[in-house]
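Hi there. Long-time user, first ticket. I'm pasting a complex I've been working with (about 676 residues overall). I'd like to know whether the download I got is complete or cut off, because the file seemed smaller than I expected. Thanks.
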Amino acid sequence: MEVQPEILLEMYRRMIRIREFELAAMDLFKRGQVKGTVHPYIGQEASGVGVCMALRRDDLIAGTHRSHGHNIAKGADSKRMMAEILGKETGYCKGRGGSMHIAAFETGSLGALSVVGSGIPLAVGAALAFKMRGEDRVAVPFTGDGGSNTGNWHECLNLASVWNLPVVFVLENNHWAVSTRLESVVKVKDLSVRAQSYGIPGVNVDGFDILAVYEAAIDAVAHARSGGGPTLLVTECYRFEGHYAYEPEVYRTRAEVEEHRKLDPIPRFRKYLVDNGKASMNEVNAIDTEVKQEMVDAVQFAKASPPPDPSTAMDFIYA
Amino acid sequence: MTSSERDATSLTTAKPVMSSDLIVQVPEGVPAKEMSYQEAIREALREEMIRDERVFLMGEDIAKHGGAFGVTRTLFDQFGPERVRNTPISENTIVGAGTGAALAGMRPVMEIMFVDFSGLAMDQICTQAAKLRFMTGGQCKVPWVLRMPQGGGAGKSTAAQHSQSLEMWFAHIPGLKVVLPSTPYDAKGLLKAAIRDDNPVIFLEHKLLYSFRGRVPDQEYVLPLGECDIKREGKDVTVVASGAMVWHAMVAANILDREGISVEVVDLRTISPLDEKAMGRSVRKTGRVVLVAEPCRSYGPTGEWAMVVIEQAFDYLQAPIIRVTGRFSPIPFADSLEKGVWPEADDVVQAIRRVMV
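Hi, the file is complete. Here it is re-exported in full:
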């Protein structure tokens, strides 16, 4: 597939933006400035960006507890993201959600739901709305390998299949559900075969290769948009960081992590861009520099933003 | 008799001491039709589906079959498979997909066959739909209605997993509204309000009331959520109730009227939001109160209502607050056992006599 250079560079920018955002968020967390926790998306950038670059702005995504990356991939603003992590009024959720619930509805989010598997039905319902109204929009629920063992996931594949809904189920297989290795809870080796049970296509791609993800997503989205129904798209990834930032990770070896870090999707894509003349080293470096500055600005914005006024604590409970 | 009619009638034929002429809500002279509670719910659905094309129905066996109690019967024929959707047996996904459709601009009305099955969907009801607007800082709204038949009694229960009353599960969750209509008139007006409301609304239909009949105005009307209704004015004692228990209260009030005891019956209609001010007004007037609710006593609705009475009217109370509730027991199957756990009208009579001492 021939991809326009400006799209390639935008992919690269969003991947770097996710990486730098997560590093900044982890740094704030380490300094005790983020309450609760953060679940870094580091290592999985090619998956989220590859999928979201295949979507239109009016297509909708449903996120998880690990959705900083999904929001940024869909076009969310770093400043409002960072402000949400610090619980500020200027955050996307006005400080009511925090890291696990950041959702930029203006860029096409259905919310980020932190109970594993719970966001999936929302995308199915949105897809139903699109179909009933005759709109050519697509809904994409993200989940991990852990989420694919929930009843929600199986119920939703079945429902979307039988109603032929425009859904692309993205399963980001990072191989670890908190401390539980995929192979210890699932017998099949390739999770995409589960699609067969529901009579829909199942595709498995290298989640470190953004172009492979993008191409597979373009196909699945086109299939859904044209009335072909849902697809299960499994992106084979790896979670470079702990389940949450600075988690001890007693359940896996450093060697295993280091082995996967060699597959880092960002240097790989950078090399592809330069080696194939899609971008010069200067262009790529300029993006790195711009995004690093963007994060400095985002952190500054977030820190300078006011917290929500306590008098507004009861706002937004009812419409 | 079709199979769905058998289902519908097997649980809904009981009306031993309750009589629909105990509650008159539509004055003579107002153009109206007599219809059952079940028909009133169906008419509300029909009118709202005609009025607003975003409204659609989803649930198990609700299409041709009309649902386990026949409530949606004929709607499939009128509106077709796009808007009256049979689903797989996937309660959590029925509700979750409803939430997604609502987020995307639709106004779904879902049915779960028995409230007992809502346990399968509690994540989507209480942890997702109820909280989405709040935790996204008001970026979205979730306008849906979840209809669920509940309750039992009168020797018509179907044991421990098809007969519970569970309104307090939902009333405890901020973000949800909880409606329990007691009459055909209320059922229609409250359901129309629920469908037009921009929040997730739990609409609990009492199975024993489906066959209850009452006059429903020909002209369109919508009732407010969050306001109770004084079903009977009185001056000696207030009885607070909701759903089918309102009928026990009315029966008791009629019996005691002959003894010269004037009973005011407050039908809460929605238990969340709870009309605390109106409860307070009534108890300040009468000075005595009996609380009647079908769920098991412990941590049930009456504990909350009693505190509201205390907060609103403590200095006016002339007698201890007494409550009439289901016992703290699963619902047994055998008639002889079932009678032992359910609140009956006679229990309300006895409770009123106790507060009048």
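A couple of notes from our side: The interface with chain B takes residues 60, 62, 91-97, 101, 103, 105-106, 110-111, 113, 115, 118, 120-130, 132-133, 139, 151-152, 155-156, 158-159, 162-163, 315-319 of chain A (CB under 8 Å). Residues 5-30 of chain A form the longest helix (26 residues).
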